[in-house]
Design goal:
With 428 residues, this protein is of the alpha/beta class. The protein has 15 helices and 17 strands.
Length: 428
């Protein structure tokens, strides 16, 4: 059975996040997207942890579902009956000094039980961490110390460096990260089995660094609103009788290529830290351009924010594009973005959401549309321009203006000729 899992997101208790990020809306949008397992997020926050305990009941070992009567139904998308399981997850922010630098990095934590979460939270409180301040709490503890706290609470927990390459808050970030996992995690390095590649890098970029050959590469949405669930995800093959926290953990730990089918990725250029640049000066540079400029902005003459592409290039010991036998990936563009391009309006507009809901009702869920349906079947449901856009994405034929310094890249999935063709009055 194919299991799509998105294990890194946020709750309504995290700063700069949607107030709709509750369990009910997250289940609804997981169903709309076609996600089977979704992270709870923010289990360190006392208010959210209490809500998790009151609304969730264990369904599969270490995986939870909403109690009867808790879920909501959005009639715009029709009846959504597919089951959604929750895994206990969170993200924490570590800011501390090591060596001659202040280090800033985010860690994803996965736990198999409420008992394990309670032990983690209690240990963090004893060390003076203010867990009530934010769903993603800031702590002055090192990554090594956090890993020890988490694994002491329960050895079946997982610690995964979040969005490992972004400049400001990541294990390999150009501004405050490290040049190896060992430098970051010290004695706990042997328990770090995976990293999250983040929106601005994809597995192919990571394959260029042999130090990551034995590390499992995860992809998650890091969603700050429920509509962004599944923009990146992990796809497993797990029989219903085997579906559990421990089986997902085992697949990740062992990098099981038979059970870990692929990851679902942004095109990394669309990520907001792919190229070097300066947001305020509207300067975007490839690594070669940044090298020619001496790493300085030609407008303000200050140091450029080094992007993920350049940082990977710094640490790589192979040619970019190196391939070997490992877990593959598929690059997608979220369906609302494709509809927005066809309609020529913003992806959050009422026109786009109405068209999106109509197509979901007709096909079942977003991943079924983007990944599974033959183009012939899609052509009976949607305007030829949408079908063309999906076909182009599946084959990687997209045009992207890369993101930089906090600015998302822009993707075009239609050729000039396809855009020039007259659209039908209705998209469906």
């Amino acid at each position: 059975m194919r299991i799509i899992a998105d294990l890194h997101l946020h709750s309504k208790y995290s700063r700069a996040c949607s107030k709709d990020l509750d369990l009910e809306h997250n289940q609804e949008w997981a169903q709309i997207k076609g996600i089977n397992v979704v992270g709870t997020a923010d289990f360190t926050h006392p208010g959210w942890f209490k809500e998790l305990q009151s609304k969730l009941v264990e369904s599969n070992p270490g995986l939870f579902q909403l109690r009867p009567g808790v879920s909501i139904s959005n009639s715009n998308f029709g009846a959504m009956a597919s089951p959604v399981l929750f895994m206990l997850t969170t993200e924490v922010s570590c800011i501390y000094k090591q060596g001659d630098k202040v280090r800033r990095l985010h860690l994803c934590l996965f736990a198999p039980s409420f008992a394990a979460v309670a032990k983690i939270n209690q240990a963090l409180l004893k060390r003076g961490v203010n867990l009530s301040s934010d769903g993603r709490p800031i702590m002055g503890l090192s990554a090594e110390e956090v890993a020890k706290i988490v694994l002491d609470a329960d050895p079946d927990c997982l610690v995964v460096p979040a969005h490992a390459w972004t400049p400001w808050f990541s294990v390999f970030g150009s501004k405050s990260g490290f040049d190896s996992l060992a430098e970051c995690f010290g004695r706990m390095t042997k328990y770090i089995y995976a990293i999250e590649t983040g929106l601005s890098s994809d597995p192919a970029m990571n394959w260029s660094w042999s130090a990551l050959d034995k590390i499992t590469l995860l992809s998650n949405s890091d969603a700050h609103s429920p509509q962004n669930l599944g923009r990146e995800a992990n796809v497993f093959e797990i029989a219903p009788v085997e579906l559990s926290y421990n089986e997902i953990r085992r697949i990740i730990k062992e990098k099981d290529q038979k059970k870990f089918l692929y990851t679902i990725e942004f095109f990394p250029e669309e990520g907001k830290y792919h190229f070097d640049g300066h947001r305020d000066c509207r300067v975007s540079f490839s690594p070669d351009q940044a090298k020619k400029s001496g790493g300085l902005c030609p407008v303000c003459h200050k140091e450029l924010t080094m992007g993920v592409n350049n940082r990977v290039y710094q640490l790589a010991d192979r040619e970019i594009g190196y391939k070997f036998d490992t877990i593959p990936y598929k690059s997608l563009v979220p369906l609302p973005e494709l509809i927005a391009e066809v309609l020529g309006v913003g992806k959050a507009s009422k026109k786009v959401m109405a068209a999106y809901a109509q197509l979901i009702r007709a096909a079942g869920n977003e991943f079924k549309i983007l990944l599974d349906l033959p183009l012939e079947d899609l052509s009976r449901l949607a305007d030829p321009a949408i079908v063309a856009a999906i076909s182009n994405v599946r084959s990687g034929q997209v045009d992207i203006s890369p993101g930089y310094d906090g600015v998302y890249g822009t993707v075009s999935a239609l050729t000039k000729q396809q855009k020039a063709k007259p659209k039908q009055k209705s998209l469906f």
